[in-house]
Amino acid sequence: MTITNQQVAERAFLQQLYADEYYPDHVLDKGCAILRALCARIEAERPADLAALYVLTGAATEEFNLLEAEFEAAGSEIETVAREEIAEDFWFVASAYGFADADAEELISTREW
Q1: Domain residues of the chain, as ranges?
Q2: Could you tell me which of 51, 13, 5, 49 has the C-alpha nearest to residue 31?
Q3: N vs C: which end of the chain shows fewer Cβ within 10 Å?
């Protein structure tokens, strides 16, 4: 599905992490795909309220949980810098779709990193 929200379509997700060699690009690419899939799902399902949005972001966060093993296998991890960058991108997505009042911690409440 093509993302129709122009602000989201132009976003370079996880940009700070790509700039740091500690984070493997092939794993970051999977993280970006998770975020883009979240955007597509938001556009398809059009959550009516924050509770519905949190269900979608929770599912995407669980996908990031699965990436932790891939980061570790590549000699990296989702540590403080990565956590903050991922959380910022989740909040950006929520804001771009009209949920600027979303709680950043609640967006990623299912995280294990």
Answers
A1: 28-107
A2: 13
A3: N
